[in-house]
Amino acid sequence: AVRYLMRFRSEYMCNLLNSARHKAFGLQASELVIETLPYGWPKVFQ
User: Fold this and answer.
1) Chain centre to alpha carbon of residue 21
2) Which domain, by its residues, includes 11?
3) SS3 label, residue 46
4) How far apart are the first and last CA of the chain?
5) Is residue 46 part of a domain?
6) Is residue 44 assigned to a domain?
7) Alpha helices (runs of H) in 1-46, residue ranges in sequence order
8) Is residue 26 part of a domain?
9) Contact between 13 and 6 (Cβ < 8 Å)
10) Which superkingdom (predicted)?
11) Which of 9, 10, 41, 42 is the most exposed place for a label (fewest CB within 10 A)?
12) Per-residue pLDDT of the chain (46 residues; tens, 9 = 90+)
């Protein structure tokens, strides 16, 4: 589906894809950080 949509490139479509890519990368990076925290890391609640 993405290949089909990219056949008709527009600034709007590029912005949508960039937004989705940035969100996915942020989620993946945050999961990696949480997985690598030491076991005794203090929890902070606000």
Assistant:
1) 6
2) 2-35
3) coil
4) 42
5) no
6) no
7) 2-6, 11-35
8) yes
9) yes
10) Eukaryota
11) 42
12) 777 777 777 888 888 888 988 999 998 998 888 888 887 777 777 6
The total number of structural domains in the chain stands at 1
Please tell me the total number of residues recorded for the chain in this structure. 46
Residues 12 and 16: their CA atoms lie apart, in Å, by 6
Check if the beta carbon of residue 15 is closer than 8 Å to that of residue 5: no
**pLDDT at residue 17 in the model:** 85
Q: Which residues are CB-contacts of 5 (< 8 A; sequence separation ≥ 6)?
A: 13
Rounded Cα distance, 46 and 35, in Å: 21
- Report in angstroms the alpha-carbon separations of 34 from 2, 25, 43: 31, 14, 12
Which residue type sits at 34? I
Q: What pLDDT is stored for residue 37 in this prediction?
A: 82
